[in-house]
Amino acid sequence: MELSLSLITSSTTNNISRFLIIIKFNPLYSINSTVIKVLIAGNNYYAPIQLVGDFLEDSVSTKIGSVKPTYLPGYRFVKLSDILPNYVTDTLKEALIDFDHKIKGFEMADAVLTGVETRSSSPIRILRNEEGMSNIKGIYPMGEGAGYAGGIMSSAVDGLKQVERLIKVYCS
Question: Do 52 and 107 form a contact (C-beta atoms < 8 A)?
């Protein structure tokens, strides 16, 4: 399962930059009231948001700064540490600070953290042999739908690995 938060760092109409921070976690270790809290924070389909500066200082945002949220139908200010497990918020804080050393301005105080979205991978897996083929000749299952990935990046990597196998089989 993955949890992702969008970080919008620019509000100019033609140049909206979005960064996606993904933290993988095992739901068996996270069975608590987090899901219920997220639903409460984002009821009426409103997204829970917090400004990065307030998130890093562990305080609730009270007004929007230079970056305007674009999520419709709307948003609600929350303290993300109240709705997410400590290991998630601690990791996000470390990541924001670390990225700011690499990309100056990444932890801009007015940037908006919008979340929370959760996803889970396919509950089934189409088996494949060492060559990457299923039990049906010529079928090469890959990615999330086939049960070999848990998100867009791991799905892309699995697709590349499958293509490499196909090249060995058909181009050798």
Answer: yes
> pTM for the complete prediction?
0.52
> Domains of the chain: which residue ranges?
2-119, 125-172
Structure tokens at 124: 């089934």
> Cα–Cα distance between 46 and 160 in angstroms, integer?
37
3-state secondary structure the chain: CEEEEEEECCCECCECCEEEEEEECCHHHCCCCHHHHHHHHCHHHCEEEEEHHHHHHCCCCCCCCCCCCCCCCCEEECCHHHHCCHHHHHHHHHHHHHHHHHCCCCCCCCCEEEEEEEECCCCCCCCCCCCCCCCCCCCCCCCCCCCCCCCHHHHHHHHHHHHHHHHHHHCC
pLDDT tens string for the chain (172 positions)?
444 444 444 433 333 333 434 344 444 444 344 444 444 444 577 788 899 999 999 999 999 999 888 877 788 898 888 878 888 899 989 999 998 898 888 889 999 988 765 555 567 788 999 889 999 888 889 888 888 887 778 888 998 999 988 888 888 7
Is the Cβ–Cβ distance between 53 and 110 less than 8 Å? yes
